[in-house]
Write a structure and sequence with these properties.
It is a single chain. The N terminus is likely disordered. With about 300 residues, this protein is mainly α. The protein is globular and about 45 Å long. The longest helix has 25 residues. Helix 1 packs parallel to helix 12, helix 3 runs antiparallel to helix 9 and helix 12 runs antiparallel to helix 13. It has one domain. It is built from 13 helices and no strands.
C-alpha cells in the first residue's frame, strides 16, 4: 500500500482500515456537539476531559505499548493545534452557515500534502493528486448541495474561523505524524489531550460560555465525544504511524459523507441529489488516491 516502512501489505491494509474506522467514528462528533448544550470551546474541553481517564487506563493496562513517557515537541504541538482546531471549528459552525463551515475545513489535505512533501519527503504522485482533487471537489459539492440554511450571526468571522480550521487540523496531522515516528499512539493521544484541554477551558472562560451541559442528553453527548475521541482520533493517530500523512488526510474526507448520512438518520435532514452526487465523487476520489500513495 505504501512505500513507508510497513511489515508487508497486510499492515498497510490494516492501517487503512483503522483510518477509515476512525474517520467514521469522528463523523459522529458534529451531531454530538450540536446535542452537547454547552459552549463551543467547552464542548471541546469535555471531549478531551472525558477521553483522558480512558486513555490513562489503556496506557496503564498496556505497559508493553511504551508507556506515557515525557512529551516530545511534536506531541505538545499536536495538543496546541488540536485545541485551536476544535475551538475555531465549533465557533465557525455557530457564526457562519453550515455549508461554509463544512466546505472551508476540507482544504486540509492540500496543506498536509505540501507539508509532508517538505518535512517527510513524501512526494505526491499524479494519480494521488487527481484523487485528492476529486475528493475535495466532492466534499465541496456536498456542502453546496445542502438545503439552504441561515447565514449565521457573523458570517465573515465564521468563514475566517472555518478556513483557519483547515490549517490547524493540517498542522495537527503533521505533528502527530512526526510524533508517531518515535512514540506510541497512547502516549501521543494522552499528551495532546493534556495540552489541549486547559487551552479549551481557558478559551471557554474568556468567552464566558456556559461550561456545563444544560441537560442529561447534553452530558451524554459530551461523554460520547470523549469516547469518539479515544476510538476515532486514536485510530487515526495509530494509522499515521504506518501511512503517509497526505494519504490519511485525504481518506478522512469520508467524514462529511458519513456525517450527512447520520444527520439524515438522526435529525431527518434532507439529503439532496447534489449532496449524493458529491458524496459519490468524494468517495471515488478517496479510492483513486489510495491507488498511488505518496512516495518517500
Amino acid at each position: 500500500m505504501s512505500t513507508l516502512t510497513l511489515n508487508g501489505r497486510d499492515d498497510g491494509r490494516l492501517a487503512l482500515a483503522a483510518l477509515v474506522f476512525g474517520a467514521l467514528v469522528i463523523a459522529t462528533t458534529p451531531i454530538l456537539v450540536r446535542l452537547s448544550a454547552c459552549g463551543p470551546a467547552a464542548a471541546g474541553f469535555w471531549r478531551l476531559a472525558f477521553a483522558l481517564p480512558l486513555l490513562a487506563l489503556m496506557a496503564i493496562g498496556a505497559p508493553k505499548a511504551g508507556g506515557i513517557g515525557a512529551p516530545t515537541r511534536p506531541m505538545l504541538l499536536a495538543g496546541l493545534w488540536f485545541a485551536a482546531d476544535l475551538g475555531c471549528w465549533h465557533y465557525g459552525i455557530r457564526y457562519t452557515s453550515v455549508a461554509n463551515a463544512t466546505v472551508l475545513p476540507n482544504l486540509t489535505p492540500v496543506i498536509v500534502t505540501l507539508g509532508s512533501w517538505f518535512l517527510f519527503r513524501e512526494r505526491p504522485r499524479a494519480v494521488f493528486l487527481a484523487g485528492m482533487a476529486s475528493a475535495i471537489a466532492g466534499a465541496v459539492l456536498m456542502a453546496k448541495g445542502a438545503a439552504p440554511g441561515p447565514p449565521g450571526p457573523l458570517p465573515h468571522v465564521g468563514d475566517i474561523l472555518s478556513a483557519s480550521t483547515a490549517l490547524w487540523y493540517a498542522l495537527y496531522f503533521i505533528a502527530v505524524r512526526s510524533a508517531r515516528l518515535s512514540r506510541p499512539t497512547l502516549s501521543v493521544m494522552l499528551w495532546s489531550c493534556l495540552v489541549g484541554a486547559p487551552l479549551l477551558i481557558a478559551a471557554a472562560l474568556v468567552m464566558r460560555e456556559p461550561l456545563l451541559p444544560a441537560t442529561a442528553l447534553g452530558w451524554a453527548a459530551v461523554v460520547g465525544l470523549g469516547l469518539a475521541h479515544v476510538f476515532g482520533q486514536g485510530s487515526i493517530a495509530w494509522s499515521l504511524g504506518r501511512l503517509p500523512a497526505s494519504t490519511a488526510s485525504v481518506t478522512v474526507l469520508v467524514q462529511p459523507v458519513a456525517a450527512a448520512g447520520l444527520a439524515y438518520l438522526v435529525f431527518g435532514e434532507t439529503l439532496t441529489p447534489l449532496q449524493a452526487l458529491g458524496g459519490a465523487i468524494a468517495l471515488g476520489g478517496i479510492v483513486i488516491a489510495q491507488q498511488a500513495p505518496a512516495k518517500r
